[in-house]
Amino acid sequence: MPGDDRRREGAEMVRWFDVVVLGAGPVGENVADRARAAGLEVAIVEHELVGGECSYWACVPSKTLLRSGSALRAARRVPGAAEAVTGELDVAATLARRNWFVSDWSDQGGQDWLASAGIELVRGHGRLDGERRVVVTPPGGGEDVVIEARHAVAVCTGSDPVVPDIPGLAEARPWLSRDATSAQSVPRRLAVIGGGVVAAEMGTVFATLGAEVTVLVRSTMLRSMEEFAGEAVVAGLRALGATVRLGVAPRRVERTDDGEVRIELDDGSIIVADEVLVANGRRARTDGIGVEVVGLEPGEFIEVDETLAVASAAPAEGAPWLYAVGDVTGRALFTHQGKYQARAAGDVIAARTLGRPVDDARYGVHAATADHTAVPNIVFADPEVAAVGLTAAAAEESGVAVRTADVPFSSVSGAGILADGYEGRARLVIDDERDVVIGATFVGQGVAELVQQATIAIVGEVPVARLWHAVPGFPTLSEVWLRLLEADGRPEAVA
Ligand SMILES: Cc1cc2nc3c(=O)[nH]c(=O)nc-3n(C[C@H](O)[C@H](O)[C@H](O)COP(=O)(O)OP(=O)(O)OC[C@H]3O[C@@H](n4cnc5c(N)ncnc54)[C@H](O)[C@@H]3O)c2cc1C
Ligand SMILES: NC(=O)c1ccc[n+]([C@@H]2O[C@H](COP(=O)([O-])OP(=O)(O)OC[C@H]3O[C@@H](n4cnc5c(N)ncnc54)[C@H](O)[C@@H]3O)[C@@H](O)[C@H]2O)c1
After folding, report:
1. Is the Cα torsion angle 198, 201, 207, 210 positive or negative in sign?
2. Fold of 6-51+107-160+283-363
3. Phi-psi region of 115 (alpha: psi -120 to 50; beta: other; left: phi over 0)
4. How far is the CA of 407 from the centre of ligand 1 (A)?
5. Which of 21, 142, 257, 448 is most enclosed, with most CB atoms within 10 A?
6. pTM for this one?
7. Do domains 6-51+107-160+283-363 and 170-280 have the same CATH topology?
8. Which family is this sequence assigned to (predicted)?
């Protein structure tokens, strides 16, 4: 059995494993899986639920909550089907389906999977206690368990929401993302502070479920994406009956004696709601996990190299022993990207442990290169926004000369068939010198599935002239690629 060589050393319970993973979110699970698949003995430490934020409070519940409304709206946009939709969204059934998808917040499935993979689950709060040493305090206290890693420790502790320093906000018992995704009832009035992806998605959910939603956006919606994406999402929220206030900032928040939340904005206006959701980004979960022992700052994201090794903790000689993977690095706060990093980290730990070759070159097996070039970012609002790579503005800021190709989906037959009055838009950002796609954004119903094509084009560095030979089926949404290429211009024959 892995890690079975437990024994006492003085008063301490000490266990030995090849690799210790701190945090059993999607990322920790994948690091453990890859290392175990290479034959290493692996322990994973978890103080809450195996499966982490994504499975119980983030991706899975938010996407299931969004799905019921988007299916209903999709049917209503198609004559023939629309006539058959005679009722309204069933709120109780929507919430119940979400509860089912999160297994009523039981992690039995995750525990079973770890056991089947031969990964040892150690329940409790883990912290670094020196080189290759983790101390775990079991749930409810009790005797600490010391785990010595023969080779590596991977910190995969994730991130927490940021609560900004707005007077009265913390005391007003605001909702954080977990409260929104696990809600068992719908507040009559919900205010949302923020204009990022959580605000867009949860605003869409609660407006669909019948709440009076007010989204308070400090600048513009989805500011890190192409401008037309944020504008479409604002229009979509408004079409669902939500109020979106752009360019406003809360000055003070108060929960009154009768339980209402009053938000005073910087323009002097007052918003009154039953709950206020704070959706203001994430901070690293590095408090209370002993990062000080390797000279890192608690609360800060952990900087890593391309193999996810913590360079500042690397020994002068020999293989690195400390890795950080997923949200805790701040590189790209998405489950898919964290799991991508996890595959590289788990494999490189195994390679270094077993003396096998390490390939950390650009796009090498053990390098998380795509974190810098091709991170898919999908906002499941209505319309959906699916983007990857650089926006035109970000490319220009980084000094790359680019051209863009823009088209409306009204030029795509498949879109018109999918839904009457289909609205949407797409943009390619093309590196002018290398003639390859370096960014793409799609906005519209069902565009989430289009972004993988762009991701492949970017990672494969496919010349634009070659993309003309990747023929999209007719009549699909993918035909937007042909329209984008036409907008860019048909290449001339090379003599
Ligand atoms: C509302 C919302 C919706 C989202 N939707 C999507 C989406 O649709 N798609 C997407 O790709 N991303 C989405 N994300 C982001 C996604 O949830 C994260 O990127 C992902 O969960 C990161 O995985 P992780 O394993 O790094 O961290 P986490 O999932 O946070 O897992 C970390 C684990 O470590 C455990 N842990 C922490 N500290 C300790 C300790 N000291 N000892 C023991 N255990 C510890 C935690 O309990 C947790 O289980 C969403 C985020 C939010 C907030
Ligand atoms: N579909 C998905 O993949 C998905 C869904 C949800 C969350 N996520 C992940 O979770 C992360 C967190 O999402 P998020 O929406 O909380 O963060 P975000 O970074 O996307 O947006 C934060 C928003 O809060 C605003 N803000 C920050 N400080 C503020 C203040 N003091 N007052 C008013 N507004 C303020 C910002 O201007 C911005 O609009 C995302 O970056 C993403 O990586 C992904």
Report:
1. negative
2. FAD/NAD(P)-binding domain (3.50.50)
3. alpha
4. 35
5. 21
6. 0.97
7. yes
8. Belongs to the class-I pyridine nucleotide-disulfide oxidoreductase family.
Instruction: Identify which of 154, 176, 150, 168 has the alpha carbon closest to the alpha carbon of residue 53.
Output: 176
Q: Determine whether the shortest distance from the Cβ of 194 to ligand 2 is under 6 A.
A: yes
User: Which residues form the pocket of ligand 1, taking CB atoms under 6 Å from any ligand atom?
Assistant: 22-28, 45-48, 52-54, 58-59, 62-63, 125-127, 156-158, 177, 181, 198, 285, 289, 326-328, 333-336, 338
Global ipTM: 0.98
Q: Is the CB of 218 under 6 A from ligand 2?
A: yes
In the chain, where are the structural domains located? Answer: 6-51+107-160+283-363, 170-280, 383-488
Distance CA 439, CA 428 (A): 6
CATH no. for 383-488: 3.30.390.30
Is 170-280 assigned to CATH 3.50.50.60?
yes
